[in-house]
Amino acid sequence: MAFTDEFIETTIAEDGALRRLQNKVTGGKSNDTGLQFEARVMVEEIVKHAVSYRFDRPVEGHVTAHHPSAVLLTQGVRAYVDDIRVETPELDRFLQLKTGNFAWDADIQTDFKYQGKLCTAAGRPFRLELVVDNLLKATQLPKSKSQYRAPEAIVRWTMPTTLEMPPSFFKDVEYLFTGVATKRAIEIASWCLELAWTKSNRHELLSDTLGRAKELAGGTLLAFDATSDWLSELIARIRATDREVLKLFADGRTIVFDLDDGENFFTGSVHIANWCAFEQAAQTAPPETARELIVMATEGVAK
What we know:
This protein is of the alpha+beta class. The chain has 2 domains: 5-164, no CATH class; 229-299, no CATH class. It is built from 11 helices and 9 strands.
């Protein structure tokens, strides 16, 4: 939900509360380091939720895996805790990001107090998080306020932008990658994910971001697009009979495969740009093996 002026004034009921929020909205970010840190945290959120859905595993605690169309991301929120907002069916998370040296002073405490009042009045489970790039600070600062089920919200540490992303991040990106997973290819895929968010309006469903990233990456990133029933059924038949198939599935109009004929291993994906030609060919003479399907999909690519 959006926090209207009337709702804020009624809920906070303190002089200057609305003016404080208006000043935060017009103030914006004042340094490149802060913006870069926001970008890093946002791409971590994108990858985390996408991988959660990929393997149908909880993002954390009680937050189950959701299709990317059920995850709403916002950067720059009209709120007191205003850097990033992540909305899922179970939980509304507000993230405040801080870099360098800072303290849990009266200014930050007031923002968290006001935001806690708004979220409590809104009636949705929520969590307020303080994300820092200083591990020592993360151990020193107190817990942020939360109404959400256990555990209490934590002060979370993320690596500063002066350091590379950790190997675990690139491993998660690899889970979303459908091509030959070289180190360079995974780095480029991670850049495509970040660029996809940068090219957004900073307020969109995760499915839209992943779709844009998939396009930027030439179809080699999963977007969890819907696949036509007849293609899903065709792939299921091929998987059941083709002994070369280790992995074969469709992500929208992209076919992803791992094949092993006993002597050679083949992995990759093919994006079907000319869908009409592919559909006509596959339904007229359905392929019986994964190789036949891949060839037919490749021939369906517009030249």
